[in-house]
Amino acid sequence: MLEGRIEFKLIKIVNGQIHWEILPFSGNHFMVLKGETQMEVFIKEGQEVVTLKPSHKSKPKLGPKKKKTIDMDDENKFKRNVDLTGEEHIVVMTINMPIDVIRDENGKWTTNLNNNMMYPALYSYLQSKYKHFKWVSYFEFPKDTTEKDKEEIESMLNEKSFFPVYLDPRTYLKFMEYYEKVLYPFFHNFVCPSDNFEFMETEYWDAYNYVNKKFAEAAIECGDSNSLFWVHDMYLLMCPFLIIRKNVNANIGLFIHSSFPSGEVYKIFPYREEILASILCCNIVGFHVFSYARNFIIACRRILGISHQTA
Fold first, then answer.
1. What pLDDT, on a 0 to 100 scale, did the predictor assign at position 202?
2. In which band, very low, low, confident or very high, does the pLDDT at 141 lie, cut at 50, 70 and 90?
3. Which range has the top average pLDDT, 106-110, 148-152, 190-194?
4. Neighbours of 18 (CB within 10 A)
5. Could you tell me which residues come within 8 angstroms of residue 13 by beta carbon, excluding any fewer than 6 positions away?
6. Is the pLDDT assigned to residue 58 strictly greater than 80?
7. pLDDT at 116
8. 232, 287, 230, 231: which is closest to 261 by C-alpha?
9. pLDDT of residue 254 exceeding 90
10. What pLDDT is recorded for position 127?
C-alpha cells in the first residue's frame, strides 16, 4: 500500500516562472514508502534529487560503520520534528464561527456552540489539546446592539480566543454570491454552456479577494513568526498567498472541505492560475479523497506547468 507525505512552499510566479523557496534544512521534501523501500525526493534549486534507502525490514548494505553514520547525520539535516506538544500557536481561519452570541436570562451576553457540523467539534478539540490558539472568522453583531454591547461582545469573544472580521454587508453579499454561484459549482463539476457567468466579472472577484485580504490581515495580526495558520475551505483560497506576501516563512495548512474539479472543468475558471498559485503557498494541503488530490496535481501540471513524480 502506498503511503506518503508531500511538503512544499511556493514563493511567487514571475513571468510565468515558478520560484521555489530555498531554505537550508527547511524540510521541503516528500517521502514515499512502498514495500520495503523508502524514497525521499528533495527540492533543491527547483530540481528533484532522489535518494533511495532500505527500510528497517530490508537487508542493510555492508560498509564502513563510520561512513554510514555520516550519511545518516546528513540525511537528518533535512528532517524536522513535527510532533505536536500542545504548546504550538495556532491560528484557525474559517468563514463562520462555531458559536452563536446570545443574551442570557439576566440580560448578559454569552455564547453557545452552534449546530455547524464541523467547527464546534474542532473548537472543542483545540480547547482540550492546545494552550495557545486563536480563531479568526466573520462576525455580524446581533440586531439592536448598542456601542456598549459591541464592546462587551468583542471583549467576550477575545477571551474565548475568537477574533472577528467585520465586513460591509454589501461586500459580504457579493463575496457569498461569488462563492455560491461560481466557486461551489466549479469545484463540484457543476458547469454547462448555459450557465450564467456574470458573477465571474471583476466586481465579484474583487469582493472575494477583498474578504480574503481582511481575513489574512486579521490572521497575521493574531499570529507571530512561529504560528501555524490553518485555512478552511473554498471561502478563503486566496489567504495563503496573501499571508505569504507578509510573512514569507509562514507555516500554512489548507483543507478543502469539498471536491476538486476535473482538469477539463477547472481550466474554464477565469482565475485558475491565481487560485492554484495561492494553494501552492501552503506547506500542506488536505483533500477528502485521493481523486481530488489527483485532480489538483493534474491542474498544476496542465495550467502552471508543474510536474511531479510518485513511486
1. 81
2. very high
3. 148-152
4. 16
5. 19, 273, 277, 304
6. no
7. 84
8. 287
9. yes
10. 85
- pLDDT at residue 13, as a whole number: 54
pTM of the model: 0.71
Is the pLDDT reported for residue 122 higher than 90?
A: no
Burial code of 107-141, b = ≥16 C-beta within 10 A, e = fewer? eebebeeeebeebbebbeebeeebeebbbbbbbee
96 in Cβ contact with 117 (< 8 Å) = no
Q: Is 236 exposed, middle or buried (0-12, 13-18, 19+ CB in 10 A)?
A: buried
**Residue listed under C-alpha cell 506547506:** 283
**Which uninterrupted H or E stretch holds 291?**
helix 290-299
Q: Which of 29, 87, 125, 126 has the alpha carbon at shortest distance from 227?
A: 87
**How far apart are the C-alpha atoms of 116 and 104, rounded to whole Å?**
21
Cell of 223: 499570529
Angle (CA) 157 224 98, round 5°:
30
- Which phi and psi angles does 156 have, rounded to 5°? -65, -40
What's the CA gap between 246 and 222, in Å, rounded?
13
**Three-state secondary structure call for residue 100:** strand
> DSSP strand E in 55-185: where?
89-93, 99-103, 109-113, 132-138, 162-165
The full set of domains in the chain, from first to last, is 3-76 (no CATH), 89-304 (3.40.50.2000)
Over 80: is that where the pLDDT of 301 sits?
yes
262 Cβ partners below 8 Å, 6+ apart?
189, 295, 298
